[in-house]
Write a structure and sequence with these properties.
Elements: E1 2-7, H1 11-22, E2 27-31, E3 41-42, E4 51-52, H2 53-66, E5 70-73, E6 77-82, E7 87-91, E8 94-103, H3 110-115, E9 138-140, H4 152-171, H5 181-188
Helix pairs in contact: 1-2, 1-4
Amino acid sequence: MTDVLIVGGGPAGLSAAMFTGKNGLKTTVYDTDATWMHKAHLFNYPGVQSMDGSRYLETLREQVDDFGVDRQQGVEVTGVESTGDGYRVTTEDGEETATYLVLATGANRDLAEDLGCDFTDDEVVDVDVTMETSLENAYATGAMGRAEEWQAVISAGDGAAAALNILTKEKGEHYHDFDVPDDAKALFGSLVDDGDE
């Protein structure tokens, strides 16, 4: 059993995975690579002057991999269900269970509907400020919970909000993922850009 199952490998799903993996939660991401980011070019993403959407995804995947996330590339989730104390996802290769589920499938809300999440009058998944759905420990991020605001940085922020809420539940206190340079050096050593160049 893993701690966090994430369905979707766009900005929302990979951001959630980055935070949960970085902070010690066993995390699996299922990614069919069907994200609209492959059609994007980022000029409006903080810290990025100009980057092709596919290159952005490559960079984010590398970060997720560095944090030990089990990234199931090209594996489609065909079903989700509550187990009473967590969630189970089904693929053609089998099943996996976890305490937490993050749905990050963009505007495709079929899995959320199958799971029994509440929807709003706008026909989007009803989520709170932490991206948690009407089902405890199940989150819906990005375009799943927004009628029109589909943008990479918003999706990434939604994924981070879900991950930080999961970490808050796991750690038993409000969790803040904020590193100072010494923390980064201890974690990544020479990979850290210390800004001296």
